[in-house]
Fold each of these.
Amino acid sequence: MDKATQLIFREPTLEDGRAITNLVKNCPPLDVNSHYVSLLICRDFHDTCVLAEHDSRIVGFLSAYCPPHRENTIFIWQAAVDSSMRGCRVASRMLDALLSRDNMSDINYLETTITPSNKSSQKLFRSLAKRLNTECRTCCGFPSDLFGEAEEHEAEELYQLGPFTLTPSYGEKSQV
């Protein structure tokens, strides 16, 4: 059996914090957050995040939240996939696992920011827009100068997907 078919998708717990921090550290070009941020995400945003496990080992993590005052929008913060699982559609399957949850039924828009050099993430979200049968628009998200002179950081372009309607069978048909 293919290792990608043996994945378990679930919400993160506080006990997963250290493994999540280490996974993100090993997934350049993702920005590395402090371990404290990983703990906060696991505690406060567990219901909008997805953890992927293979053989009881964390091999993927998708962090997301609903921006305040925009209850029908989900913002995808990061999608990290262990190098051993790249090319197995783990990030795509984590997105599908998230969007198929009951608590996502009122979500009609998805946003994320992606650097111009991150072609794999651009492809991931454009593919998701096709699966959702909606538009994928891009505009200025965060110009590079906002990150400060001490840190070399590309601009982050804002990707906006929507509007779309999530049906109860979304996750089933998108996993095929």
Amino acid sequence: MKCPFCNQENTRVIDSRPVPDNNSIRRRRQCDECHKRFSTYEKIETIPLTVIKKDQSRETYDRTKIQDGIMRACYKRPISVEQIERTIDEIETEIFNKEEREIPSTEIGEIVMNRLKELDAVTYVRFASVYREFKDVNTFMDELKKMLK
């Protein structure tokens, strides 16, 4: 690892600790030449994941799509950014623990809905109404009745 200050290649790891997301390690390093300290992060390289969409087209997995959908569903709800990030991390962990190279978008949607059901009922209903493409009030009410049981 090169020192960001003097570009020297000789650096030592002083301290290592896991980052709260459990998917990376923070390393504190010191340059042998200029003696300045800096941090680096090691992240686990995951298998590239392809999402099979409803129309059978394929695209590369993109965390921001899940994040955008959840953020829209959480709009004006008493849910912190930390809770949202933790939920997205849990969803991603569940997806990648399947160790598949391809996953249907419907499966991702169901995982997201299950996590949102635990997080906040209103957020769950908002997400489900878009994801399940409710056509009318009766379909919406059926989903609410399932949730209330």
Amino acid sequence: MFEPLRRLPAAVLILAILLAAPSAWAAEILGRVVGLSDGDTITVLNSERRQVRVRLGEIDTPESRQPYGTRAQQALSELVFGKDVRVAVQDTDRYGRTVGRVYVGSLDVNAEMVRQGAAWVYRQYSRDRSLLALEAEAKAARRGLWALPEAERTPPWEWRAAQRNGGGQRPAAATPAPAPARSSPASSSGFSCGAKQYCRQMTTCAEARFYLSQCGLSRLDGDGDGVPCESLCR
């Protein structure tokens, strides 16, 4: 059944092979990083002098308004900005960005961001279990975002969902609750339980201590040392 193939000219056979497997030639982007949008999105100027937006696959970094968001972008900039990269393409997201693993030489940038504690493993999209091991290692060593109090370590996909649902308000948006009718420790301090949940919503150390001791909001004391919201209560 393969006898007719043997009679084809070599050039025709080569062309047939190339046409049969175009994905092998389209699954990689080579270029130089000329811009960063955040901690997991870069702009690559490819060999055709065309700018391509690339979303680092399988990881997710804190948003710019989250704790460690700016530092995650700085970490990525140190790894890739102005450097030649290779992008192993995985997909295209709903925003039209190319999604893939980014390499500078032999360095896997996606994995390095996780190893440094500058990124979470994006559970919903990750297929590489070795990234979970790197994340566990970074967490155990308290590197990067893992050095933050637990209350400030909200996975970015949860943070975005809270923003879409109207949650995660900034402190200024939280209206103080009226004093409860029943006897409450809030009466002398002016604070009341239930209005706030996170360190980012606290305005003073005294308020954070009230929520920890009187409201039982243990998430404010991420490391269990009895001091809540250490950014306020240093």
